[in-house]
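dumping the sequnces here before i forget
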Amino acid sequence: MLELLAYDFMQRSLLAAALVGAVCSVIGVFVVLRGLAFAGAGTAHAAFAGVTLAYLVGLPPLSLAIVFGLATVWITGWVEEKGRMKLDVSIGILYTATMALAILFLGLMKSYNPEVYGYLFGSVLSVTSEELLTIVGLSVAVLGTILLLSKELYFIAFDQEMAAASGVPARQIFYLLLTLVALTVVISLKTVGAILVFAMILIPASTAYQLTHSLTQMTLYSMLIGTFCAVSGVLLSYAFDLPSGPSIVLLATSLFFLAVCCSPKRLHRIQAQ
Amino acid sequence: MTHPIIRFDHATFGFPGIIALEDVSLSIPESEFVGVIGPNGSGKTTLCRAVLGLMAPLRGTLRVLDCACQELRCHHRALIGYLPQKGMLDRNFPVTVLEAVMMGRYGALGLFRRPSRKDWDIARGALAQVGMDHHRASALGALSGGQQQRVFIARALAQQPRILLLDEPTTGLDLTAQHSVVELIQQLHRELKLTILMITHDINMIRSRVDRLVLLKTKLFAEGPPQEVLKPEILSQVYGKDLVITDKDFVIVEDYHHH
Ligand SMILES: Nc1ncnc2c1ncn2[C@@H]1O[C@H](COP(=O)(O)OP(=O)(O)OP(=O)(O)O)[C@@H](O)[C@H]1O
Ligand SMILES: [Mg+2]
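..and the predicted 3d for all of it:
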């Protein structure tokens, strides 16, 4: 197994997977606690529509993915804030509309382009050095921001109005969180793909949620689980010639069910009865 | 009279298409304990949110701590402790009691700064003040309603506020817990000289404890010492004719009086 690490492409994929695993699982904690799960899923599909448009007009794929992703999260946040419409309805509409756009753009392409499908299904083993650089840059930015503002992010996840009432710029922090979600989705597109990226955000955090009563511990556990699943998923996918996205996500899902069965929270409750 | 710490001047507050509080003029001096009463939907919570600067006046002005608190950024926010009307707390939310109390300090700490040793001491002290220090490592969701209410009061105290806004702090608690929470609030008022606005539906419980009562029904219907506000002719205008005052000064619904 160790000789694998001698290959450049393998080093790149493992580093990309580890970073994506860490970023997704950390932002996932705030997404889960703030109840934004569905919003993130919508963002992933919007970002993919951005990728397809970029291929169509000949721009760097991630540039338009960021534009589409940000537009979607900000609209979602604005709708939630105004409370004019139920959030699941507005996201449902955005979600399907952006998917329709993606299919439209794919149809407009003159020829079949396998690279585009890499962004839909994830192909971590084909990550290039430039892509890795983008991933590293954005990961550092996202993780750094979370580290600097973690106490505010926890507070708005717990109770946004209370946070605003005690002098935290809650609204700005909420939009910042949405922005970080969009960036995370974009970072992860190439590795796990638009369809599965949301699993990487949701599952490690939900697994950690089963295991602890403390915010700091939940974040730590989530990050460990996310990184472990991403790296092991890549190794499994290479060893058994499986697609990387599903290997990572199914590994994470198994851990999740294991955690649900052994959850100290749940066991505690059963004992109490 | 001392300089008022909160001053409404013909202030009107509302939501799109709804006036929740109209033309309120009210001055509250520092260290006063004020009870706020009124029927459901009479604008009590709106009054609190206004003081917090979460709603700007549509007309008139509101000054809190000598600052027109209409700006979200107002740094005076951190000086106002708030216990919101009971919402739905997610019992599974992973937060310990001490972590929840520490959140009260985040506004005063400012962005990027981590809680220091001193902040943890303040949070522990606030927990001790509400008699919950021994629960500091428990999961917040594992506590009873009354215990959670104490923790949230501790969170407000951890802000080291000058004003404390309490929105129905005793609703949903059993009789003994209600009593002990009210005693705690009274004690905080005495010891810390806080200015307190306490919203409640329990007129009988609050009447003997506050310096002043404010009776709302979209407008400021009456305000003054409890005995001046709790008069049959005033109460019947706000709550309807069924409310009566017994010879022992209890406010009750008439039916019970007769049976
Ligand atoms: N978020 C909101 N959007 C629109 N209208 C609102 C909102 N919150 C309150 N209102 C309206 O403002 C008015 C005053 O509400 P408020 O919550 O201040 O009443 P309250 O006295 O606290 O009532 P309760 O005793 O039930 O807590 C009500 O008519 C209510 O319908
Ligand atoms: Mg209310």
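The interface with chain A takes residues 52, 54, 72-75, 77-78, 80-82, 84, 87, 92-96, 99-100, 103-104, 106-109, 111-112, 114-115, 138-139, 141-142, 159 of chain B (CB under 8 Å).
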